[in-house]
Every structure is written in C-alpha cells, then in structure tokens.
Amino acid sequence: MASTEPAHEPEEETAVETARRQLERAAAHLDVDEGVIERLRHPTSVYQITIPLERDDGTREMYTGYRAHHDNVRGPYKGGIRYHPDVTQKECVGLSMWMTWKCAVMDIPFGGGKGGVVVDPKDLSQTEKERLTRRMAEELRPVIGPMTDIPAPDMGTDPQTMAWFMDAYSMQEGETQPGVVTGKPPVIGGSYGREEAPGRSVGIITREILEYYDRDVAETTVAVQGFGSVGANAARYLDDLGADVVAVSDVDGAIYDPDGLDTNDVEGHDERPGMVSGYDAPETLTNEELLTLDVDVLIPAAIGNVLTAENARDVQADIVVEGANGPTTSTADQIFEERGIPVVPDIVANAGGVTVSYFEWLQDINRRKWTLERVNEELETEMLRAWDAIRVEYESRDVTWRDAAYIVALSRIAEAHDVRGLWP
Ligand code: GLU
C-alpha cells in the first residue's frame, strides 16, 4: 500500500530516545516501582576517552571514544564496541540500554554496556587499527574487566580487534585474561560459532515466527538489508531451510533475483567488501527499494533507523525481523502496529551474539572449550526458551512482539532491583 501523505519523523530520533520510549511502553503494562523505571531511563555511568594515535605517516590524531554502562543489577555490563564515524555518546547510551534488555530477555547474567570510537575504520591501515585498539584498551582499563564490563565486537570491529584488546589488557594485568572480551578468535579463547551467532539467531527466530503464523519456510520469500556478519548468516541459514532469499544488499546497493539468490555464492561484505552489489544478479535495486519489496519477510540487518515515518507505509513485507540494533524508529513502529505488520525486535532476534558471548565467557572462566555442535545446540535451546517466554506475554496481553519482549526483560530487571534493594 503506497502512502498518500507520509507522516514525517518529528525530528531525528536518537537511540536513547527510542530506547526510553520502548521502556515506557513496557512499563505501562507492569506494576513496577516508578523509581526503578526512572533509574532505567538513565545510564549508571558514561566514560569519555581521548585516544591519541600515531598515523603511519608519523602525524598524530586524537580520537574520541565512549563506554556507556547502563545497568548491572543482573551481572557485569556487557556489549560491543563499534568503530563508526557517526558514533555519539547518546547512541552509546541507547545501545547500552538495549543490551540490558537483550541480556534480560535471554535470561543471561549480564547487564548492559556499549562503547564506540568516532572513526571510520576504512580510513585506517591494519597497524593503525591495532595501535588505536591497544591504546583504547589501556584508556578503558579502569572501568572494564572480566567481572565488571566485558566488551565484544560490533559495527566496524571484529575478532582481530578483540584479540588486540585482550592482549593489551592482559599485558597490563600481568596475566592472560581471555574473559575480558568476547568474540575473540577461537585460538585464544574465543567460542566456535560466535561470529555466526547473531545471524543464526535471526534465522532461528524467523523460522519460529513463520511457524507461529502457520507459514511454511520453504514457501517464504525474504529480503535482507545488509550482507555483513548478521545479514549473511541469517540469509544463509534461511536459504538452507528452503526459503527464497530474493534480495540482499551492501552499502552500495542491492541485488535481486525473484527466484531466490544462491546466498552461499554471494560473498559477504565482511568477506570481500563490494562483492554484494558487484554480484552478477538478474536485477539491481537501491537499498530503499529493497526495504519496500513485496516479500514475506523483511530483515533489516545493516544499520539503525532505516525504517522510518518516511517509508514505513510503503513496506510491503508481511513480517519484519530486526537483524540490526534499532532499525525501526518509534513512529515507524506505530505505523507497523496500525498496519498489523508484526515486528520481531532486535533484542531477541539478534541476541544469539551476546548469548554465545556468554558461552564464550563461561568457556574462558572454566578454561574448557565447547564443540561447535554444543554451542549451536545450546544456542537453539536458549533462543527457544526466550521465544516461549515472549509468546506467553504476546498471547496473554494485547501487545506487539516488541512490547512482549520488553515486558519479559523489564519484569526480570525490576524484580532483581526489588530484591537487591537500594544501597543507602
Ligand atoms: N554487539 C553485539 C550486540 O549488539 C554483541 C554484544 C556482546 O556479545 O556482548 O548484541
């Protein structure tokens, strides 16, 4: 259905504003102490650091970084570190709030944290990235640690980044501390299956929501925006189940094949940048066109705020599953609700990442590696457990899938605050 009069976004919505609105919506359904809600509207602390970097040509540049700690009532702060030119303090706070809900909805014993450096990693050489990461680890050392705050990869960072971070931290501590970060390469304490996990959980949850609406995955068409770690693994998982993944994209554009792409043949954006839009497909589209394709399932798995007041009425998918963190603005969410389009929220759909991070942390503490089969089996169990809890709320209250997930998360966090009490 094309829009005649598209509503406009009231103003550019920051991640923290979206996160607060979502919190308030869930709170309206629960009998939670107003003081706890007010507390959860704010981060516990936000650290700002300056990272001096010597470039390869000998010049010096200063980079700004942040680490936001939102809430740790259920366990150490947990969340990624991103390298991106648009990183802001507010974005880190909003993303750290989402991590609190994500860990709670999965019932894993972590709180929410998030960090970032305002930098375009494409502008840095590999050795510059290494120096930046090591210096950042040193600047953040007072506020992170295996029992206090455990970073992980996010946009623009990867297992190698985590390896440098772990090494810098360990050298300063005088002992190897693999549990200080997750998402490391398996050879130094990383978990098998961690890199694929966020995309895999998007696939598992898509399979579950299709079953909920009595749809056969083998008869389903899917469009995936973003073919990086999350998008590519989700697309391949669903392709393997028999779905037709008709469109995928990278920053430069989308490729489209109405009969379904061979997702294993398309190289991911992380594997070889530029190879998605450069792939020999029957048709090419813009990213905006991909979002409004007439498909059964739309998976935005690239960046935040892509489904907005401007395009939500033009979305033709029957179901949206959020692969990225925060791809839907509050206004777009309302439009989808009015239009009866179910949106499965990021905090459950891509939670496989932090769930396998938790498995990794357990393996690091126990100094004992799990097999890939065990990781994937336990991930499946945890995803289904979370999905069941959300389904119970969805069915027993007249709410959206997002509200149902937030209700599950918020009741666990509120209960933990309640029993721990406030230190005078
Ligand atoms: N950055 C990922 C996320 O947004 C993973 C966080 C983690 O594993 O700690 O969920």
Explain this structure to me?
Homohexamer. Keywords: Oxidoreductase. There is one protein chain. The chain has 13 helices and 12 strands. It is α/β, with parallel strands linked by helices. Among the domains are: 136 residues, Leucine Dehydrogenase, chain A, domain 1 (Rossmann fold, 3-Layer(aba) Sandwich), CATH 3.40.50.10860; 151 residues, NAD(P)-binding Rossmann-like Domain (Rossmann fold), CATH 3.40.50.720. The strands form 2 sheets. The protein has a 7-stranded mixed β-sheet. It has a 5-stranded mixed β-sheet with strand order 1-2-4-3-5. It starts with 14 loop residues before the first helix and ends with a helix. Bound molecules: glutamic acid. Glutamic acid binds next to β3 and α11.
